[in-house]
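Anyone? Bumping this.
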Amino acid sequence: MQSGADFHKRTYMKPDGRKLYLYGRQPHELPVTEELEPGPVSTPHLRWHPLRGEWVAYASHRQERTFKPPAEFCPLCPVQPGGFPGEIPFADFEIAVFENRFPAFHPGAPEAPELPIPTRPAKGQCEVVVYSSAHRGSVGELPRERRELLVRVWADRYRDLLAHDMVAFVMPFENRGEEIGVTLHHPHGQIYAFPFVPPAVAPMVAAFREGPVLSTLRERIGDAYDVAGNAHAVAFVPPCARFPSEVWLMPRAFHPGPWTFSDAETLGFADALGEVVARYDALYGRPMPYLCILYAAPKGEEDRFHFHIQFFPFLRTAERLKYLAGCEQGAGTFLVDGLPEQMAARLREVTL
Amino acid sequence: MQSGADFHKRTYMKPDGRKLYLYGRQPHELPVTEELEPGPVSTPHLRWHPLRGEWVAYASHRQERTFKPPAEFCPLCPVQPGGFPGEIPFADFEIAVFENRFPAFHPGAPEAPELPIPTRPAKGQCEVVVYSSAHRGSVGELPRERRELLVRVWADRYRDLLAHDMVAFVMPFENRGEEIGVTLHHPHGQIYAFPFVPPAVAPMVAAFREGPVLSTLRERIGDAYDVAGNAHAVAFVPPCARFPSEVWLMPRAFHPGPWTFSDAETLGFADALGEVVARYDALYGRPMPYLCILYAAPKGEEDRFHFHIQFFPFLRTAERLKYLAGCEQGAGTFLVDGLPEQMAARLREVTL
C-alpha cells in the first residue's frame, strides 16, 4: 500500500505476473476473489516500414482478445467471492489499472524475428484504466471526485512509466463507442508506453522545439473558439480541426504533463474534461463516439511540450459517421465538411 | 474527339463548366441526354495545422453530397433520353471521368479566409472515374479489356493533371465498401490532384531519394510474399504490412507512373490488378472493403519514385473489421494482429 497526499494506491501482482493497481480516495483493503485464467504469452515485435519510415507493431496473440462479452461476463467488472472471474478480482474498487492481457508493447517482449527489413522487440507497456466499478457510464458521468482521481491516476502512471529506460513516450487514451471498434463497454481507457516517439507525435515535438506553438495559437484565437473551461483549463475547437467537432483541452499554464499540476489545476482540468464530454453527448443527444488522446511531453521534451488532450469525434451529423478513407489514409490529408467556427458555436451553445 | 494509339477520348463540357471525358476502345458518338442540375459553388480552402505541420482541407459544400441513393437514381449510371438525369448524360459509355461535383480541391478555389493560422486556396482537382456503365461490379469483375483501358485512363489523367502548374501530386484511388463509408455503389474510383506533396507521401519521397527502396525490398524478400503476378507486374504482402492482408502491386521494371508503361506492361499490370481483387473477394467469400491507393511520382521525382499500388483492406477476419483507433490515429503507429507471412500464404492459396 502506497499513499500520496491525495490518493491511496494498492499494488497487486496477478498470478500470471501482470500488475494491478487499485487507486482510491480511500485505502483499498478488500480480499482477493476470483482471478481469470492466465493470458496467452505475449510475443509482440516491431518491423520497420521502409516507405513510411515508421515502426509497425505485430502482436498475433491479440487475435484471441475478448470481443463484446455479455455484461454478466465483463472482465472489467468487480468480482464477488465465488462469482464469474475477471481482471479485477475484488468486490469493489474506485479506479483500477492493470497490465493489458493482450499487449502490443511488453517489457518482456522477446527478440524479434530476423527478416529482410529491420526488426526490434516491442518493448514497452500497455495498461488498461478502469474508471469505475459500474459497468455503464462515461468520463462525463463520473462524480467530480472520481474524475479528479482519474487525472491523478494518469499523473501517477506517467511518473511510473516514464521512469523506465525503455520508454520514450507515454500515451493515455480512450476509444469510445462501438462505431469505432470498442469491444468492452465498461468505461475504461488505455495507456501505451512506447519505446520510440511515434510518427504522429514527432511533428509536435518539432513544432514545440520551434516555439510555444500551442499557447501562441491560443493567444491568437482568444476565446472565440472556446467550448468549455475555467480558471485553470480551457477547451476549444482548433481552427485547424481535422475531425468534425474536434476539441483540444489544455491547462492554461504551461505543463509538460498532469504530473506537474497543482491541486487546483488538477481539479480544474478534471472539471473541464467532464464538461467537454457532457457537451459532446448533448450535441446529438447520443453518446459521441470519439478517440480521446493525451499528449504529454516525450522524455527529454519536458521544458517545451505543452500537455493537452485532443478529442477526435467520429460523428459528422447525428446519424452520419466520419470515415477515414482514401484521402485521409492514402494521402494523410484530412477533408473536413464543417467549419471549426460553426462547430465551436454549436458545442458552446448546446443545452447541458 | 482525341484518339490515342489504344483508346479514344471524347471531351464534353457540362453546363456548370465541369469537364467530362468519355474513354473507350470505340469512339463515343452518342447524343447528350439528361443532365443533373448544376452543383453548388465550390469554395474549398486549406488551413495549416501548426502541431502536425500539415494542411487540412475544408469544403463545407460537401455536406450536401449524395448519400446512398437508390439504384434507380444513381448519378453514375448512363442516362437514357427522357430518363432520370445523371452526371454522365449519355445512354452508354465505357469509362467516364468527370470533375467531382463536391471537390475538396478545385482549380477555381477562391481566396482562403484570413485566420489566426496560415491559410491558402485549395487549388487542385478532384475527378470521379466510372469504370463501367453497369451499376454493379468491381475492378475484379471487369472484362480484361476494360481493366486494361482503366490503366490507360489513369495514365492519361496523370499526364493531364500533372501538366498543371498548381499540381504537385496526383493520386487515383478507390474507396470500396459501405463498411468504410462508400455512399455510391456504382463501381468507381476517384482522382485527387494536390497542390502539395501530402503528408503520407513525403516520407516515400524521402525514402526513394535515399535509394531504390521498393525494388531493393522486392529483391530481398524474393517471391516468398507473392500473391499474384506475371512477367510485368507482381503483387505481394509487404513484410511491414500495416493492414490485415495489405498488398502492394508494382511493375517489375522501374516506372514513375503508368504513363511510361509499354503496351505489354499496361496489360500485365491490369491483369495483376484484377487478380489481386479476385483473391481479396475469395479470401472471405465476400467483397473485401478496401482502400486502393495509386502512388506515382510527385512532380520532379520521376527519376526515383517507383510507381505502385497499396491496398488497405479493412477485414481482419470474415466478420471483423479493422478499426483505426487510439494507437493508429493518436500515435500514428499501426497494430497488426496477423503476420504478413501468414496472410501472403492465405491469399496465394485461396481458390479462385
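Late reply, but here is one note on the structure posted above: Residues 263-283 of chain B form the longest helix (21 residues).
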